[in-house]
Amino acid sequence: MEPRATLNYYKETLKTLEKQGYHFVGTHKHSAVKTCLWLRRSIRGEGNCYKGKFYGISAHRCIQMTPSIFCNQSCVHCWRPLEAFNIVGEVEPVIWDAPDEIVEDCIKEQNRLISGFKGSDKTNMDAFAEATVPKNAAISLIGEPTLYPHLKGLIQEFHSRDMTTFVVTNGTNPGVLREIRPYQLYISLNAPDEATYKKASHAQYWPRINESLEEMRKLKGRTRRVIRITCIEGLNMINPAGYAELLERANPDFIEVKAYMHIGYSRKRLSREAMPTHLRVKDFAREIAEALTPLGYTYTITDESEISRVVLISSL
Ligand code: SF4
Predict the structure, then answer these.
(1) Of ligand 1's atoms, which has the minimum distance to the CA of residue 73?
(2) Is residue 56 domain-shared with residue 118, that is, in the same domain?
(3) What is the pLDDT of residue 80?
(4) CATH assignment at residue 203
(5) H/E element, 209
(6) Ligand 1 pocket test, candidate residues 70, 75, 232, most atoms within 8 A of CB
(7) What are the pocket residues of ligand 1 if the criterion is a CB atom closer than 6 Å to any ligand atom?
(8) CB of 311 closer than 8 Å to CB of 282
(9) 252 plus 276 within the same structural domain
(10) Which of 187, 147, 149 minimizes the C-alpha distance to 166?
């Protein structure tokens, strides 16, 4: 069990996250940026992440950030320390920074973080020069971005700097989805039915998630729409027909079926065996695509990344 939220635990956890490579930006420490393994590989010309393979994003030009380290769910597979940040303002009132401050600081911090690559023999200097001008913000690092009350302005601020945006939400705030227009919108689905959702997320937002799926359908042609299903062995790799019914509601452009990764704080809650193999993920992705056919939808597996254990299903 992780400790209950207290101001001390909250502050200690902020320090732990800093040691783990999360860099808080803005004045009030609710936003963070972190460079990923793939940025380091990409800047050396040693490969790109699956988002590059699937959607053309260059990892060395991508800022991974969040405007809210807080979340309203407690998913078993989350790599965050759940209890420290779960309820916004539970341990301390939150003062939200303005979008322009967060964006400015994210870009500055990313540049500071990559500056060390300049002196390395392994760095591809063309990639390094490109990396100093990021082109995409993955608003998905940790926490739930729709809890930040100025998300629409944050997205607009990134776009005004000639950057694209990926927003990954847990779908619990459909009202926010009616307002925002990111370049690519993800909803994370971690269950095919309400009972499994409660086991996976320890939350009560099932009706709101269903509403968000309907909102996603309305965004067809206005933003690229993706549903991500995180597969946890022994918990939610069941009932492909249930997933298909939910997917029918959203009618996304893409479905990412991805393995849970046994990392971070999730290791306190799940065993390594909960991480399915790539083959298992691919078989399950096939079952989901097949379950959509009787509903009148044609979805096909179009790509995969074995190293990231993720399979891409596309709408045809
Ligand atoms: S919705 Fe995302 S950030 Fe929130 S607990 Fe679940 S996995 Fe973690």
Answers:
(1) 5
(2) yes
(3) 79
(4) 3.20.20.70
(5) helix 206-218
(6) 75
(7) 71, 73-75, 78, 80, 142-144, 170
(8) yes
(9) yes
(10) 187
